[in-house]
Amino acid sequence: MMSASEAAKRAAEHVTAMTGRSAESVVGIERAGEGGWRVAVEVVETRRIPDSADILACYDTEVDADGDLVAYRRARRYPRGRVERD
Q: Out of the domains of life, which is the source (predicted)?
């Protein structure tokens, strides 16, 4: 069975391959059925100067027990540093 850290690494690699943008961070992970994982990966979609004006995106992914990509989608885009309100 794949560990959470390995699933996060594989999901970040998949997002990089699919979008052509480097993963900035993994911002969430949870188990999915049959030994898979759901992983939220953050990337910089648009770089700006200063970097505090960058536009980030969060991609929701799912990897199976072997680390293969099962699903991915961009969940949201937002300016760096924006605080979400509950």
A: Bacteria
